[in-house]
Amino acid sequence: MKALLSKVVGGPDSLVLEDVPSPVAKPGHAVISVKAIGVNFPDVLIIEDKYQFKPERPFAPGGELSGVVKSVGEGVTNVKPGDRILANTGWGAMAEEVALPANRLWKIPDAMPHDVAAAFILTYGTSYHALHDRGHLKAGETLLVLGAAGGVGLSAVELGKAVGARVIAACSTQEKVDLAIAHGADSGVVYGRGPFDKEGQRALSALFKEACGPGGADVIYDAVGGDYAEPALRAIAWEGRYLVIGFAAGEIPKIPLNLALMKGCDIVGVFWGTWTQKNPAAFAASIDDLLALYASGKIKPHVSAHFPLEKGADAIAHLGGRHAMGKVVITVD
Question: Which residues pair with 69 in a beta bridge?
Answer without folding.
Answer: 32
